[in-house]
Write a structure and sequence with these properties.
- The chain is α/β, with parallel strands linked by helices.
- The protein has a seven-stranded mixed beta sheet with strand order 3-2-1-4-6-5-7, sandwiched between helices.
- The protein folds into two domains: 217 residues, Alpha-Beta Complex (Spore Coat Polysaccharide Biosynthesis Protein SpsA, Chain A); 75 residues.
- The radius of gyration is 22 Å and the shape is globular.
- α5 runs parallel beside α8, α7 runs parallel beside α8 and α9 packs antiparallel against α10.
- 52% of the residues lie in helices and 14% in strands.
Length: 298
């Protein structure tokens, strides 16, 4: 099957040519999308362009997700591979990605488990938190939900595409695939130090990723599971209120007048968390059954 590599690039003049050179022998075509860069990215892409490397340009910066969609739109391959233009993802893992697709995976992720010291400490912590949340919400072990190196069949893009603007796209796409019951496979890869300046804004992008996870978790959860999850949220809310009341009384009066509140708080929160877990498990098996039925009818 023909493979297309999509490389979104925004102010990546230092790393773009290196990425193209490294991936050139691993894929059938490379689609570069210059997302309104203000440096020499377009010129670097133009020098790399030939019969195997195509260059497209957004006149203004529209965001990474728009660049990815433009790349997929112009790709002719049966399999789409995403990578970043900062030279952090080695091309030698492409055969492993394709092998997993050939074995039946719907989405293959390059999990950044080697060379993690190249990732800033704050980013490593955030990556761990978001991957844990993605694992809990999807009931599927996900080690790196934010990785930019991923592969899937072209006809899957419409099912995996999500509403997003920036770096939360990868997280949201991963959780959506898991929630819909698609087969996700992760292969361990090396993560190298980036070439050029990082555009990640840890606080702002982290908040958007967090909202993205809960947004897709709610929107892709079945009605049956929502009927379980919503009451559990009410239990947790009441538990938090009684908990805050206990803390307030202890601080202001030095004693808790409603001595049963702490026990009540613990009980309600535990029940709420257990109900949420039950709802997610029910949703997971429901979606898995849907995918099995889908495969059997093909």
């Amino acid at each position: 099957m023909k493979t297309s590599l999509v490389v979104p690039a925004y102010n990546e003049e230092e790393g773009l040519a290196l990425v193209v050179k490294e991936y050139l022998d691993q894929v059938d075509e490379i689609i570069i999308v210059d997302d309104g860069s203000t440096d020499g990215t377009y010129e670097a892409g133009r020098k790399s362009a030939d019969d195997k490397v195509m260059l497209f340009r957004h006149e203004v910066n529209r965001g990474k997700v728009a660049a990815l969609r433009t790349g997929v739109e112009h790709a002719s391959g049966d399999i789409i591979i995403f990578t970043d233009a900062d030279c952090t993802y080695p091309a030698r893992y492409v055969p492993d990605l394709l092998r997993e697709i050939d074995k039946g995976a719907d989405l293959v992720l390059g999990a950044r488990l080697q060379g993690r010291e190249s990732m800033p400490a704050f980013n490593r912590i955030g990556n761990g938190i978001f991957s844990f949340l993605a694992t809990y919400i999807s009931c599927m072990r996900i080690k790196d939900s934010q990785t930019g190196l991923r592969a899937f069949k072209r006809d899957m893009f419409g099912k995996l595409d999500v509403k997003a603007q920036g770096l939360e796209f990868e997280t949201k796409m991963t959780v959506r695939a898991a929630k819909l019951g698609y087969k996700i496979v992760e292969i361990p890869i090396e993560y190298r130090e980036r070439v050029g300046r990082s555009k990640l804004r840890p606080i702002k992008d982290g908040a958007r990723m967090l909202l993205a996870i809960f947004s897709v978790a709610y929107s892709e959860t079945s009605l049956l599971s929502k009927m379980i999850v919503i009451p559990s949220m009410i239990f947790i809310l009441i538990g938090l209120i009684t908990g805050f009341a206990s803390v307030y009384e202890k601080i202001t009066r030095g004693v808790i007048s409603h001595e049963y509140y702490p026990i009540f708080t613990t009980f309600l929160i535990l029940i709420g968390v257990q109900l949420i877990s039950l709802g997610l498990i029910v949703d997971y098996f429901t979606k898995k059954l849907d995918r099995i039925e889908e495969r059997l009818t093909k």
